[in-house]
Amino acid sequence: MDKDNGKSALSLTRPEKLVLIILSLLLFIGAAALHWRRSRPFEKIVVAENGVRKELTLKQVEGLLREKRKININTASFNELTLIPGIGRVLASRIIEYRNSCGTFYHESDLLDVEGIGEKKLEKMKDFLRMP
Known about the structure:
This protein is of the alpha+beta class. The protein has five helices and four strands. The chain has helices at 14-39, 58-68, 78-82, 89-102, 119-125; strands at 44-49, 52-57, 71-72, 129-130. A two-stranded antiparallel sheet has the order 1-2. The chain has a two-stranded parallel ribbon with strand order 3-4. A hairpin with a 2-residue loop joins strand 1 (44-49) and strand 2. The longest helix is centred in the first third of the chain and has 26 residues, at 14-39.
């Protein structure tokens, strides 16, 4: 408090208070929108095929994988692994780590040694895998 006039040292005019409230609201709305966007699963994936970019749903990507090719689990990149149903970023990393330290996967059942892959997950993945 300022002893001279009894007002606070940080007194704001009415327009200044209004601007501060509006800026605070915009900051809150922006933070909420960012959180909402980051917490939603991807609905569309952009892929390039024959030089043409397309937006596909996860179901469409699964269909393309079934039709066009199976992924070689021993040579697949991180991004290719994440296209296999049931494999996200963490599991793709674990597969690559396991592959680098233990070598080639010879049978689909070898994937059961990777932490996070059980019988059910392996069953979902089988149609998308190519083994040597």
